[in-house]
Design goal:
The chain is an all-alpha fold. About 75% of the residues lie in helices and about 0% in strands. It folds into two domains: about 50 residues; about 130 residues, no CATH class.
Length: about 190
């Protein structure tokens, strides 16, 4: 039943969109158009992003990542991931694979969590758009408040999870687990 639910959901969604276009139901037509637009924009960004992530995994050594972002790295590791997150295009659906690649290469959990937070709030195109609409003063205040909060929360969450021996697992390694099982390593 678990595998049938997504298929049934996709069929119902497709039927709703088809019905909406056939009957002229405008909200359904808008949903279908938005879905198509989002899918096309993802297809433009994701292949290039995944190629770059693959190149990162091959070209950047584990030792280099561990030196700058690993367990023995300094507070500068947060600056490195802030710079990386600021240049990440494609939003969080690109940031999550990058975060996984960083973690696989030896970045400590606090730094990976900070990267995800920074990728959500500190992308350069988003900052420019925000400054043009909300003003530079608002944008600077938001950045000066948000960046330390992301650093503090990622450090606290990383320490909390590390104290409980939590580890990230790949989707492939947890695919066979029963529903309701957790990913805590004891």
């Amino acid at each position: 039943m678990k595998a049938k639910f997504p298929v049934i959901l996709i069929i119902v969604y497709a039927a709703f969109i088809l019905f909406s276009f056939m009957s002229g139901y405008q909200p359904g037509k808008d949903i279908g158009s938005n879905f198509l637009s989002f899918t096309l924009s993802m297809l433009k960004i994701l292949p290039g992003a995944f190629i770059l992530i693959g190149l990162f995994q091959v070209w950047v050594s584990r030792e280099r990542v561990e030196k700058h972002l690993g367990e023995d790295s300094s507070i500068m590791s947060f600056l490195w991931v802030l710079l990386l997150a600021g240049t990440t295009v494609g939003g969080l659906y690109v940031a999550f694979p990058v975060a996984w690649a960083l973690y696989e290469k030896g970045a400590r959990l606090q730094v990976v969590l900070a990267y995800l937070g920074f990728a959500a709030i500190c992308r350069i195109p988003m900052i420019i758009l925000e400054a043009s609409f909300m003003g530079i003063k608002f944008t600077m205040v938001r950045m000066f408040v948000s960046i330390p909060l992301v650093m503090i929360s990622s450090a606290l969450l990383g320490r909390y999870l590390a104290a409980r021996n939590w580890e990230m697992t790949s989707p492939e390694s947890s695919a066979g687990k029963e529903e309701g099982s957790d990913r805590w390593v004891h």
